[in-house]
Amino acid sequence: MKLARYVGDGKVEIVDEPVPACPPGGLLVKTEACGLCSGELMSWYMDQKIPHVLGHEVSGVVVESQDERYPVGSKVFPHHHAACMECALCLAGLQVHCGRWRNTKLIPGGMAEFFAVPRKNLTDTLHVEDMRPVDAALIEPLACVMKSLRLGGWDPDRARANGEWGFQVNVIGLGVMGLMHMLTLDSEATGCDLNPSRVEWARGLGLRAGVLDNWVTVADLIIVCPGSQQAFNTAVAMARPGATIVMFAPLAPSQELTLPQALYFKDIKVVQSYSCGPDDTRAAADAIRAGKLRAEQVVSDFIGIDELPEAYGRMKTGEILKPMVVFE
């Protein structure tokens, strides 16, 4: 079977390897769609994983099963990490810090014609027969968005005053993850970016968006999608007294986030949002079923696996928004 492996220096190769065996108590899945995650573009992060098979935004059809809940022919979305759901961290809602979570994975990865789902990953594997594969593959990134908004205190049922939303949300950065935040929030958010083409894409989706240099809107919740001090400083300038800033992405290991004194004098809260747990996964699936997100809104290029190395480079340089491999 073909798979995509990151080999370092920002390069991806397509190689042939044997189809993995169905793990005891697990599943063997034929891949139908797999997106390229923006996190897989961070060289400082990826270079420590070499050699690494790409792909965790994935959906497929079960071709061999050792769990009666997922018979052959089932359409599934499996999370690449899964918590035990029994330890103190899991019970406290901190599933991504569970000892099992980081030690679970898809084999060899989702960007392959087939992948195996170990038994332990089934605590966060969903049936998606009612979804298109290209939409189901977006459950994992959207789940990260659901966690971000939850930690930020966003309440979709918040009361409206005089017919207007009484809680302003700003999204900094209109790459894929920024767009997903905006689409989830719908009319309750505004977004900004330094890249005019990203602003144009967002506006084409009917979202309120502007170029960052011209941005003056203040907000109660600011989602910072780029992992940079500059983006964080922009959020601080936007924050109303008592606002919350969510750092959605990390800075590089060589950098430290500096917290200005303005946070103290304006009672601004800063929270971090790392990955997502099973509750967020279910919330994301529900949002997709409710029509909040369709693949065409955030995927610019639907491609075959042989086209991925070129698409990887083009996404890394910002030439395209996001590629998704669709398997035959």
Description of the structure:
Helix 5 packs across helix 6 and helix 5 crosses helix 10. About 2% of the residues have low confidence. The protein is globular. The protein has twelve helices and 18 strands. The chain has two domains: 195 residues, Medium-chain alcohol dehydrogenases, catalytic domain (Quinone Oxidoreductase, Chain A, domain 1, Alpha-Beta Complex); 120 residues, NAD(P)-binding Rossmann-like Domain (Rossmann fold). It is an alpha/beta fold and 328 residues long. Strands 3, 5, 6, 7, 8, 17 and 18 form a seven-stranded mixed β-sheet that branches. The protein has a six-stranded parallel β-sheet with strand order 13-12-11-14-15-16, sandwiched between helices. Strands 2-1-4 form a three-stranded antiparallel β-sheet, covered by helices on one side. It is 27% helix and 27% strand.
